[in-house]
Design goal:
There is one protein chain. The protein has 272 residues and is of the alpha/beta class. The chain folds into two domains: 161 residues, Alpha-Beta Barrel (TIM Barrel); 80 residues, no CATH class. The protein is built from ten helices and ten strands. A six-stranded parallel sheet has the order 1-2-5-6-7-8, covered by helices on one side. β6, α5 and β7 form a beta-alpha-beta unit. α1 runs parallel beside α9, α3 runs parallel beside α4 and α4 crosses α5. The radius of gyration is 18 Å and the shape is globular. 40% of the residues are buried.
Length: 272
């Protein structure tokens, strides 16, 4: 999401750097890349193809459908069953693959399931049956929506907002833990778009980072990994240095003192 231009719209400021980020990811052993055709639009997938094709045999490309962009970069819903299928077909074509490892249904706002949601999940299940996608995921869902989706088809991953300062999806994470479903938190450090709390500005995070000789971002990411074995991180970046910093968080061990300090983080000020 960070590789296209500002606002996830248009080409990157530095195409060579964007390609280097992708190539370095694979060099580090990362084998899961999260993307979407509407990132750009048509930019992120083209970069992935240009940087990594032919793809390593163990690389899992995961995309999402349910949205589009207008000519100024505005976000548009595209969540009718036929639009979902068109979105998957566009991803397959731009990534030059016959099947995607998983595709997340971006259904809209989390809430109570309804007839449209059922139709959307049914369309995803049909594409899995057709071999277009290996697994069905859902994004930005409530616990009720996750349960409804699981009654229709197998769900392999859930993408919801979740981080040290925003634990509103705790019930969904707990359900994923119980069912061995991958939980993929987006905005793991707080939203990069618009007003949001900045997790790295939390004083408890800063204190732990100083004591462990780490960065606040590494502490926040390590906390997520320590929170649950079902958590799969997708922190976005547009620089190789930031990528390597994020990757190093996987080896950062939070001791009992750190976990205690982070259990009730101090309030932080929203940023814009």
């Amino acid at each position: 999401m960070q590789l296209p231009g500002p606002g996830v719209f248009g080409p990157p400021k530095d195409r060579d750097q964007a390609l280097s980020v992708l190539r370095r990811s694979v060099e580090l052993g990362i084998n899961h890349i999260d993307t979407a055709q509407y990132y750009g639009p048509d930019v992120a997938n083209e970069l992935i193809y240009s940087a990594l094709h032919p793809y390593p045999s163990d690389l899992v490309l995961v995309s999402k459908v349910g949205a589009g962009r207008d000519e100024t970069g505005g976000w548009l819903p595209a969540n009718k069953p036929e639009e979902l299928r068109a979105g998957v077909e566009a991803n397959l074509a731009s990534l030059h693959v016959d099947q995607l490892g998983a595709v997340n249904l971006r259904s809209g706002e989390a809430g109570e399931p309804n007839d449209l949601f059922d139709a959307q999940v049914g369309a995803m299940a049909a594409m899995q049956e057709a071999g277009m996608i290996a697994g069905v995921g859902v994004s930005n869902v409530s616990l009720a929506q996750l349960e409804r989706a699981r009654s229709i088809t197998e769900i392999v991953c859930v993408q919801n907002a979740y981080n040290l300062r925003d634990r509103g999806s705790e019930p969904v994470l707990e359900a994923c833990e119980a069912a061995a479903i991958a939980f993929v938190p987006f905005f793991p450090l707080g939203s990069a778009f618009g007003a949001s709390v900045d997790v790295t500005a939390d004083q408890a995070v800063i204190n732990v980072a100083h004591r462990l000789d780490a960065t606040p971002a590494q502490v926040a990411l390590a906390w997520l990994l320590a929170r649950s074995a079902q958590i799969l991180l997708i922190p976005g970046t547009s620089s190789v240095g930031h990528l390597e910093e994020n990757f190093a968080s996987a080896s950062l061990v939070l001791d009992d003192q750190a976990l205690h300090e982070l259990a009730a983080p101090t309030p932080v000020t929203a940023t814009k």
